[in-house]
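Why should sequence recovery work at all? Because a backbone constrains its sequence more than one might expect. Tight turns favour small or flexible residues, buried strands favour hydrophobic ones, and helices have their own preferences. The token representation captures these environments compactly. In the example below, the structure is given first.
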């Protein structure tokens, strides 16, 4: 579940993220070549006999030009995709009950969002074993939820199935009651970036849907999400989903003890930009463990934030990519966040454990 700099966080949990410094200009590493122009008319030559005008421009490689042309074709295809009506809120059913014998996270029952914990979550061998168990359960639940994705199924039905599987395993669905969130899972369809609330809307043929599952098992949270295809999905949308997953994988690949956090955003941004996709800056990854959300904040875009990874540490990497604008707007429910231009968005997320030589993906089984 992504952290955000939404006004809700600012007012309730002092979690307003400051404007993140951007990385280097996309032109900073490009080779530049001067083009020289001389005055053509006699009068111009007389008025400035010793001068020449030098214009510096960026060389465009054949690959860059090909990528630009493909991007234009994809944008044209996206316009065709977007002929369907924009996402609208359906009916939200009552909150589902959780048996009394299942332990609750400490935030349940509180109307305010918890503050972001400042300490990194670094685990001993027992803590790592507990994290593995929670994350494995989250992965199994997410995999099951994905099997339910098909046209005519409602996101409310997915929520009920996820809720039941989690409580049958003796765990608590972490989103339920977090800052007042009314459901056990986040379901974000098409232009919804994240934090979509399950409701009565039926999935349509050609939709994409991100399902974000977090479970609280034996005092530890396991957090993961994936974007699924519903029915016959267009090739441009398939490419968006595929590249988003690749971005997450490339971010994970740079992680190890002593590595700087900014490498994650650099690697993700480089891959996304190669395909012409935008990386959403507002939503970030986070530390996770006995606490749902803690430091470090994981930026997915190019940045110069300080800090290095430590062996035994657990956190999420969860990039969101868009076909168009990376700007967003949040519905009156204070959760559902959609792209400002109505373009599609995709997200993938894993919880990882930092090791001496790399990173172990915990949300797999």
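From this structural description, the recovered sequence reads:
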């Amino acid at each position: 579940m992504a952290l955000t700099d939404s006004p809700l966080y600012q007012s309730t949990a002092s979690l307003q993220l400051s404007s993140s410094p951007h990385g280097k200009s996309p032109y900073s590493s490009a080779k530049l070549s001067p083009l020289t122009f001389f005055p053509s008319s006699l009068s111009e030559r007389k008025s400035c006999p010793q001068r020449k005008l030098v214009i510096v421009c960026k060389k465009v490689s054949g690959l860059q030009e090909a990528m630009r042309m493909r991007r234009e074709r994809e944008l044209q295809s996206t316009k065709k995709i977007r002929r369907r009506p924009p996402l609208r809120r359906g009916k939200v059913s009552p909150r589902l009950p959780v048996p009394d014998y299942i332990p609750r996270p400490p935030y349940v029952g509180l109307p305010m969002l918890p503050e972001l914990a400042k300490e990194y979550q670094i685990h001993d061998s027992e803590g790592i074993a507990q994290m593995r168990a929670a994350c494995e359960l989250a992965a199994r639940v997410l995999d099951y939820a994905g099997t339910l994705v098909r046209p005519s199924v409602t996101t409310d039905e997915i929520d009920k199935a996820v809720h039941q599987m989690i409580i049958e395993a003796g765990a608590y669905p972490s989103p339920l009651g977090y800052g007042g969130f009314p459901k056990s899972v986040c379901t974000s369809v098409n232009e919804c970036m994240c934090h979509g609330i399950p409701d009565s809307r039926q999935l349509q043929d050609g939709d994409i849907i991100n399902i974000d599952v977090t479970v609280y098992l034996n005092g530890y949270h396991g957090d993961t999400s994936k974007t699924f295809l519903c029915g016959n999905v267009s090739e441009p949308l398939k490419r968006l989903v595929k590249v988003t997953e690749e971005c997450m994988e490339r971010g994970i690949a740079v992680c190890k003890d002593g590595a700087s956090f900014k490498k994650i955003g650099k690697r993700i941004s480089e891959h996304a930009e190669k395909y012409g996709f935008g990386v959403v800056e507002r939503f970030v990854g986070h530390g996770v463990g006995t606490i749902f959300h803690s430091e470090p904040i994981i930026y997915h875009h190019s940045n110069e934030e300080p800090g290095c990874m430590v062996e035994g540490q657990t956190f999420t990497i969860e990039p969101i990519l868009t076909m168009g604008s990376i700007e967003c707007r949040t519905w009156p429910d204070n959760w559902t966040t959609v792209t400002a231009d109505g373009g599609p968005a995709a997200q993938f997320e894993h919880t990882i454990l930092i090791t001496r030589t790399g990173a172990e993906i915990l949300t797999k089984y």
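A few observations help interpret the result. Residues 67-91+117-361 form a domain with the Creatine Amidinohydrolase fold (CATH 3.90.230.10).
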